[in-house]
Structure formats: structure tokens, C-alpha cells
Amino acid sequence: xxxxxxxxVAMVGKDCVxxxxxxxxxxxxxxxSSNFPKIFPITDRIYLGMSGLATDxxxxxxxxxxxxxxxxxxxxxxxEPQTFAHLVSSxxxxxxxxxxxxxxxxxxxxxxxSGDLKPFIAAADLIGCLNFAxxxxxxxxxxAKIYGLAxxxxxxxxxxxxxxxxxxxxxxxxxDRDAFSGWGCLVHVLxxxxxxxxxLKSRMD
Amino acid sequence: MARxxxxxxxxxxxxxxxxQIEYAMEAISHAGTVIGVLATDGVVLAAEKKVxxxxxxxxxxxxxxxxxxxxxxxxLNANVIGGVAGLTADANSLVNYxxxxxxxxxxxxxxxxPVELLAQRLCDLKQGYTQFGGLRPFGxxxxxxxxxxxxxxxxxxxxxxxxxxxxxxxxxxxxIGTAQSLLKQEYxxxxxxxxxxxxxxxxxxxxxxxxxxxSEKLEFAVLMLDPKTKQPRAKIYKPAEIDxxxxxxxxxxxxxxxxxxxx
Amino acid sequence: MEVSxxxxxxxxxxxxxxxxxARSIVKMKTDQDKIKILSPHLLMAxxxxxxxxxQFAEYVERNIRLYQIRNLYALSPSAAASWIRRSLxxxxxxxxxxxxxxxVGGFDTTTQEPHLYWIDYLxxxxxxxxxxxxxxxxxALSLLDRYHDPDAxxxxxxxxxxxxxxxxxKRLVVSPDRYKVKVVDKDGVREVEL
Lengths: 205, 263, 194
Known about the structure:
The complex is a heterotrimer. Chain A is of the alpha+beta class. Chain A has helices spanning about 55-75, 80-95, 145-155, 160-175; strands at about 5-10, 15-20, 25, 30-35, 40-45, 45-50, 100-110, 115-125, 130, 135-140, 185-190, 195-200.
């Protein structure tokens, strides 16, 4: 996990979710790229973040895109966050005894039977053990630090702009204390009608 | 005499013909017409539906999905739509093959499959059934309307033998003679999507059996570039959108009763 | 010790690699070309385990050429880089993996843009404005952070490259003495003398 570095966090708000990552790609202590996003859109209302070994991150991104595209085109509807979480989990567990070194974080808005959208977040370990949290999920080299800040800053039912501020402060301050994460951050806030995407500048050391 | 060479697809007749292939093409010439027109800023596809009726459940095509009833026009990939004519069951199998081939290309090269390459992939499969023994060829012709950065907008046609070719405007299915001569007369090289839509619908209305066009007999799709992202975007029309389009083009016979209800 | 650099500028990519073939502590020859021309607008500098490097580079070269023959046009730089990355990622989890690090530079003729990709033997890939492999990266990257300009002319780009090479010569104990430099732009690939 420390080979390339990187961290991801997701948080629940009031009728919205946020997911954020840092932008560093390293080769152990050497920084290679300051523009390496670790979050990818899966559908209009599911975002997947991954931290860990960068080669597996790219391989899994391609594999998930393949499987979600085939799902979408055959089912003629977009995949639901819960379904996608289990797709991620089973893909990882398929490699139980030679795993992809990735810890995924999923943020999405799921449809309720009444047609409303409900915030959804989940994380998994590298062999696909799912963790459905109600507040926030973390992964990556700065995960312990993110936990600390999230525990202090997060509160229930944050509005989109407040949630953006909370997740940004949590991630930026956590990665500043981590040598393997940082070099800028990327934040997405998913709301009912739009996705707010912002790139944050941070310390470059 | 010819009958002796019918039963196997892979045996030439003494005149050097493959009868099963010709029969497959014959089957296609009874299928619903599909017309494709290539414009400067997009590609237009329209298809005549044969399976209709009051009791047919079309609820899935009215809301959700990609539009279309799943009979004639399919989304093959983000940058390609396909129109099929022939045996629907064979077509479904080919559409599935095309979608998988397109996704495999995306997986290998991280780019949308070039349109001609997708046509080639299907033709390789189709050709196999004209050569290897004991199997029936696919009774399907396809039109591929797509976009890639190499040749921009493109329109291809492929037939059961595994031949394919690129076109500015073409059609497959029943009454193609009439449709093709109409297209030849009316097509201009600098045609826009707007004009192509009119041309396709006009041609369609002249080739179809029924005198009036309506969403219950028609599928319709357009592939254009998204003005913002500059990426190709396919739009397969839903029944209500087709009716609105036909109304705007002045091709739908107005139904007095429904108009009264609206008041 | 092997060193390779690459940087983009206005409508071009420069790729440079040392020309030393070494075994243990002995220089066997000093005129080896470690930059393959994959297609009319695509370059690849390779370094790593001797044997693996050439074997893998030729495998890539032939496959890219095959695609071009089959489809009448070459793969775009991003498609080629993605394919190469996948080959390495699949190789990594096979019984005999290739230990090869790459810098893939190309000019996309459909969009008229230069692209440069940094790929390591694990299959890690990222698009970058400049990059390096080997011990040279520890000296060159900080110089490039300071002097790289994405809109620089070819002369300015080559001057920046010269700074990197001079720095490596000055500070690295086992620095190579000769480099091969190739450029790719809208006119294709060519070799330049520094």
C-alpha cells in the first residue's frame, strides 16, 4: 500500500454524498505525478475511489468499466450502488489467494422504492470484505489520520456545501501529515440534481 | 439440380454459388426496412417494425432503457448504433457479440472501437458460417452508424456472407429497390442531420406497406457529437419522441379523436 | 546505470536514453539504441532487466505494427500506451514477468496533440508532462519541475534536456557518457544530436 501511496475518503450528508482523493502518484518516496486521480465515475450517481497499488487500480478500473457497461447494456438500466458494491466485492474475492492490492471506496445515491434518492457509501478491504457505514469510510496510506479528522469534523445531515467543506478539510489536513499522500486533492459531491467536482490545491511537499 | 446443393452451407453448386447464403439474403428481403443516411454532422437510422399489435407489451420501451423496442435498432457501443434486418433471434445473438467485441476493445485499448473494426469483427464471425460445415449462416444484414476519430461519422452495411461496405446512404430489408433509388435522387454530399432526418422519414413513408407512419411501426435513431464534450452521443427515440418528430415533419396523419380529447 | 528522460513541449515530445549496455560493473558497449520507433508517430524508451527489455520491446513493436497492417491506420498514442500497460500488468501476475520500465511518447495525429506516458514494470501508468526512469530521475525531476515549459520550442526543450543530462553527469557516480535523443512531432519521428 505504501508503494505508490494515496488516500480516499467518502462521507454521507443530507440527501447527498461526497467522495475525495489526493492526486499523488509515487514510486516509494519519489513523487512521479501530481495529477493521478483515484476516483472514477461508474454511472451518473455512483463514484468509485481506489487506493493501493496503482497498476491494480488501473486494471480494476478497466475491469469494472467492462462489467458495468455489459450490465447496463443488457439490463437496459443503470446499476444500483448496492449491486455495484457487491460486484466490487465478488471481483476482489475471486482473487482471494493472489489479491489485487486495492482498497475500494464507493459513494453513490441509490433509488428507494418511492423513487427518492438515498445516500450510500461503502468500503472494502483488498479481498472484498464490505463495510457499509452510515457516516464515513476511508482507505489509503493516510486512513488512520483521516479517521481522526473525520471523527472530529463530521456531523449528521450536512448540506452539500457544508459537506464539501468538511470532507475537504478532513482530507487535506490528513494528507499533510502523510508522506505518501497529498500533492492536491479532488472532491466530488453528488446531489439529487448535479455532481459538484472541485480540484483543491494543497502543500506540494 | 440446385436442390442437391442446398442442404449444406459450405458446398458450392456447379454454377459456383452458395445457395444457403442466397436464401439468407432472400429472408432479409422480406424483413422490415432499415434506412441509414450519413450526414456531415451525424448519422440517421430508421427502421420499420413488423411485430405490432394492440396486445404487444411495449411498456419497457416507453420509459427507461435506451429507447427503441429492441426489435430493429440497438446501441452497440457508446459510439455505434446498429440497425438489423432478418431473423430477429439471429440478430439478437449478433448484437450481443458486437457489444462484447466493443467492450473487449475498450478493455484492451482504452478507446471506443473504431466503427469499421466493429463491422470487421462481426463479418469475421458471419464469414465463418459460410465456410465451416453443418451450420446455418446468420440470416441478418446490419447497418452500423458510428463515429470514431479516424474517419469521423460513418455508415456501414454487412450481409450474411460476411461482406461489408461503407455508404453515404443505404438500406436493407424489404423494398430496398424503391428506397435506394429515392435516396440516390435526393442525397447531397453536404447534407445535414436535419435534412437527413427528413430524407429518411420521407423515404420510409414511401417504402412502408402502411400509408401512415407512427411510432408503433417505426424505430428511429440519430448519432451526433455532444456539443459540450465533443464525444459521440447516440439517441434512440422513444415512441412519444417519434410521434412528435413525425408531427413536426408533417408525416403523421392527424387523428381527430385524440385531438378532441386534448381540448 | 540506466537513465532515460522524456519531456513534452509545444507540439512535440523529446525522448532520451543512455546508450550503455552493461553487465555487472563492465560496460560491454556504448552505442546501443534503447528507443524503439513503434509507429510513424510513436516512440518508446525502455530500460530494466537486460534480456527482458529487448524481448518485450520487440514484442510490443511487432504487435503495434500488426495492428497497423490489419487496420490501415496506427493506434493512437493513448490506445498504444493502454495496450502496453495491460501487457505488463498481465505479465506481472504470470509465472515469468517482464521487468521493463518504459517512457512512451507520441503525437496524436487526430487531435494534433503530443502525449507522454510513464509506465513501470508493474504496469503503473500515468500521463505526464515530463518524466524519467532510473537513477537519473532523482536528479532530473526536480530540475524539470523548475525548468519545464509545456509551450517551449524544440530548441528550448532540448536545452532543458541538456541541463538534466549535465546534472546527471556531474552528480551521479556511475553516469553514462552518451545519450540517444529522439523527437516525435507532426512530421513523425527523427533523431537529433545534442
